[in-house]
Amino acid sequence: AAHCSMTYPPTSRNTFALTTPLYYVNALPHMGSAYTTIAADAIARFQRLRGYSVRSITGTDEHGQKIERAAASAGRSPQAHCDEVAAEFQKLWQLLDIRYDRFSRTTGPRHEAIVRDFFQRVWDKGDIYLGQQQGWYCVACEEFKEERDLLEGNHCPLHPTQEVEWRDESNYFFRLSKYQTALETLYEKQPDFISPESRRNEMVSFIKQGLQDFSISRVHVDWGFPVPADEKHTLYVWFDALLGYITALLEDEDAPTLENALAHWWPIDLHLIGKDILRFHAIYWPAMLISAELPLPHRIFGHGFLTKDGQKMSKTLGNGLDPIELVNAYGADAVRYYFLKEVEFGKDGDFNDTRFVNIVNADLANDLGNLLNRTLPMARKYCGGQVPDVSAQLLASDCLLKQIGLPLGEQVSQFYNDLAFSHACEAILSLVRSCNKFLDEQAPWSLYKKGEQKAVEQVLYAVLESVRLAAYLLSPIVPTVSTAIYRQLGFQDDLDSVSETSGYFASYDVHSTWGILPAHQELGEPKPVFLRLE
User: Fold this and answer.
1) Could you write out the three-class secondary structure of 54-86?
2) Using CA atoms, how far apart are residues 347 and 339, in angstroms rounded to an integer?
3) Cα separations (Å) of 533 from 196, 288, 319, 342, 366?
4) Of the candidates 339, 380, 497, 527, which lies 20 to 30 Å from 487 by C-alpha distance?
5) At what angle do helices 31-49 and 323-330 cross, to 10 degrees?
């Protein structure tokens, strides 16, 4: 797969801000939302390793008619409904070992202040007006649908079990059509503003059909912020929800003003979203920001959908995948690894139980875990339980592991930058597999019997150092396994803190270099770092 190379964040900043979508609380979290958040967490951890100060943002989008109806059917208030579902998302993120910095909730009072500020800027620009809206409305999508896009019997293509409703009401509109040329220029000048390329092409052809102004208010919907200019109207969910990204940038002690929110972390470096909400992020959002005269995010990445056993997951088919059940059965690292290794990020991907167990066992239990398990006892037996006294610089340049290991840090760094997680895993695993082969070929146990102590030490050093490098480079994806490996190699610090103690940028450059395992470091007790899944 072709991945466009890019260097980001911009070199003038040592900060990196990224977001998942703010997940809609009409239902409990599912595997699709977990997938986006796992990917976001891997990128956030990678940027922390690189010495960046990171703000990782996730959260919930909590307004709109769909929430109002979901709460009513459950017999509770909309706020109680939102509180309950938001807590379920937080619980799942903890279970998946996701370290977010901000959980943005659009029902918060600080958020309302930001929305008012932003609305005023766009209003003052003359980009909001009162108009009449007629058409078919999908409550599940919270948007009007073109007749040509509907299925037979007036059903929404995204929610085929639900009929759309005819609406004829006065709404406030945002002048999206005014920004058509600005958006076309943006896509042309910044080809990587939307990735992958297939998504960018979709948006380019959508814009070519001509942009329509979109309504940003609703009447007869109570659950939302009132329109500042006319309190009979409620702000439409998307206009309010997208601003949740900005609210999340406020420092706790700052007054909730747009100026304070934008002071340190704006613009966002990366918005990670599912492809179904691409239009809102790639068209509505930049147009709103241009109207408010604010800098644009650097990159929007729309990933693919997940299927199960080759079929779309749906309540009707009863083939959903519960992320909580999956983590409870197999552990967070196994789930994180499978979805980032097995699905090429950006394309659709499939979950299958047997393949899941086979891949995770082959890579994490057999190749990586077993390698450490067989090497540590040899180091205890032949080298007194310490890292052998070998200088990586003096190892022969034809040492296979050194040849693979030296360029690996840079290659993997580029893969993470390109969000090519599956390629990163594959590159790291190829070093691990080469280690297993190298041990079999070099047979340090035979060398030891022949009294060739120096050769034994060189072989074991090369393998132990390669295991260390693999663990370090995999740590954004499997943090628990990687930390366990680092501990057994005699390091005391958590991998998370390794980056924070070594100064800006020094850490990744040092730790991702092959050959830094300190001689004589006491090795830990060998124990399995990843138990085989049944």
Assistant:
1) EEEEEEEECCCHHHHHHHHHCCCCHHHHHHHHH
2) 12
3) 33, 48, 22, 17, 11
4) 339
5) 60
Written as one letter, the residue type at 215 is S
Distance CA 423, CA 415 (A): 6
In three-state secondary structure terms, 269 is coil
Q: For 275-397, where are the alpha helices, taking DSSP H only? A: 278-279, 285-291, 323-330, 332-342, 353-360, 370-383
Q: What residues are paired with 396 via a beta bridge?
A: none
464 closest CA partner among 389, 361, 363: 389
Q: Would you state the structure tokens that stand for residue 123, as one six-digit string? A: 């209003």
- Which among 328, 380, 360 is positioned nearest to 531, based on CA atoms? 360
Position 327 scores a pLDDT of 96
Task: Return the residue matching tokens 């450490």.
Answer: 372
The three-state secondary structure class of 523 is: coil
- The Cα–Cα gap between 432 and 465 comes to 11
- pLDDT on residue 504: 36
The 3-state DSSP class for residue 15 equals: strand
Cα-Cα-Cα-Cα torsion 197, 198, 202, 203, nearest 10 degrees, comes to: -20
The amino acid occupying position 443 is A
- Give the span between the Cα atoms of 263 and 108, in whole angstroms: 20
C-alpha span between 13 and 43 (Å, rounded): 17
For residue range 178-219, list pLDDT tens digits in order: 999 999 999 999 999 999 999 999 999 999 999 999 999 988
* Contact present, 43 and 18 (Cβ < 8 Å): yes
In Å, what is the CA distance from 385 to each residue of 8, 156, 494, 520, 527? 42, 65, 21, 9, 14
Tokens for 290, please give them. 């241009």
> Which phi and psi angles does 308 have, rounded to 5°?
-125, 125
Cα–Cα distance measured from residue 241 to residue 104, given in angstroms and rounded to the nearest whole number: 10
Sign of the CA dihedral 153, 154, 160, 165?
negative
- Burial of residue 95 (CB within 10 Å: 0-12, 13-18, 19+) is middle
Residues of the chain with pLDDT below 70 are 1-13, 315-317, 496-506
Q: Which residue has the tokens 């003359």?
A: 126
> Is 378 within 8 Å of 445 (Cβ atoms)?
yes
Between CA 476 and CA 288 the distance in angstroms is 33
Question: What are the phi and psi torsion angles at 353 (to 5°)?
Answer: -55, -50
Contact 489, 467 (CB under 8 A): yes
What one-character DSSP code corresponds to residue 316? Answer: T
Structure tokens at 459: 């072989």
d(CA 172, CA 229): 10
